[in-house]
Amino acid sequence: MTFGVVEGARGEEFVSAVAGHPFGDIQFTGDRFPLAEVRLVAPMLPSKIVAIGKNYADHVREMGGDEPPAEPVIFSKPSTSVIGPGEAVAYPEKLSQRVDFEGELAVVIGRLCREVPVERAHEVIFGYTCANDVTARDLQKRDGQWTRAKGFDTFCPLGPWIETVLDPSDLAITTTVNGEIRQSGRTSQLLHDVPTLVAYVSAVMTLIPGDVILTGTPAGVGPLTVGDEVSVGIEGIGTLTNRVVSRD
Amino acid sequence: MTFGVVEGARGEEFVSAVAGHPFGDIQFTGDRFPLAEVRLVAPMLPSKIVAIGKNYADHVREMGGDEPPAEPVIFSKPSTSVIGPGEAVAYPEKLSQRVDFEGELAVVIGRLCREVPVERAHEVIFGYTCANDVTARDLQKRDGQWTRAKGFDTFCPLGPWIETVLDPSDLAITTTVNGEIRQSGRTSQLLHDVPTLVAYVSAVMTLIPGDVILTGTPAGVGPLTVGDEVSVGIEGIGTLTNRVVSRD
User: Fold this and answer.
1) What ipTM goes with this model?
2) pLDDT > 90? residue A142
3) Which chain B residues have a beta carbon less than 8 Å from that of A145?
4) Are A223 and A154 contained in the same domain?
5) Is the peptide bond before B218 cis (omega within 30 degrees of 0)?
């Protein structure tokens, strides 16, 4: 297993292997593989995943909320919830009867940092990837705190890779289930934008290379069932696809 | 920096250094140091800290709650919030005007595990330590989700060490501020006991050696101010002491 850089024309991409980790100056090993022959796993192992709730106004409304909150609402998902592209989301049918997809833009941190000013947020961002903030909606409502509902193993698909050269301010974000479009938003609709979120979270806790901030989901969230194939696609990044299997 | 085993009579304890990590069979390096000459840091670096809310009835009442919840309420603290004995809790005065102590029994996991049955919980527990679930009470009330309020750097003192041979079912737990007793409970008052919590949390997420479950706080929580010295003492374990400094 190795980190690598994905390059090349569409349909002819290859992966150049990187020695060690990709934060800071990278060094290539010289090994190159066609992307089609590589099995991608989650593009990083975050020490923490900080997620933002209620960050698209139309999603706040569909959840029955009145006004979006003045400040970002933060919660977290455990590192054990992370899976990569192509891995299966395990539906915990004994504990939940309603598991929803939530497509999101994920920010990957590249530098140890805290109390980052908004105008310097770009300096600590390594890149962007797609995320699915899978949520046991029934448990979320019952518990009040969201940690259990959003913390199951496999409930944080990330990938397919990290795009390091990207302006995140106005990207189309689309979630499909079995090929049917369910969420279709733009990151320009974020109530609190990426630099604001990096500043807000890092004012509380030190961020470490590989840490991930999930920026919230647009309207259209809905249930998954066993056998579904769910994809989160973001303009300029790529598409993260996972199927749903029964855990039990 | 090394792991070690604390042994010997009270006042004459010494630390025997351990090669590598302490999970599984341990091997001593042969180095021994008087405890008084050793600087203890947090006894583990947890990949995650899962905490339980509202797990003592008298604390539920003091927080204005009615009935304790039928199921444990779980939330989490980031690994970046951990400090060891003697390290300072940094009061984020720009963001909070009310930071409380919460003395708690912490369970340290010793084995990779998931879906642990209650009756086998003891097999996955490495030991017990003292914890202070420091909480920005004003932010906790304002946010609804507790992640920010409980997630600041330094808000999870752990230590002074891990007691590996201990029955956790009826231990006195005492929190003092500047030597004055503020919390005085017994772990027999836990609404959901230690084996139940291990089963409950591991039904959701895989636990990894070093992961920590905080079992909840008894009544008597209250504010800290800069300059305070706060101690959490648990019968059969020891005492975790930290002072409070201004972050800003």
Assistant:
1) 0.95
2) yes
3) 53, 73-75, 145-146
4) yes
5) no
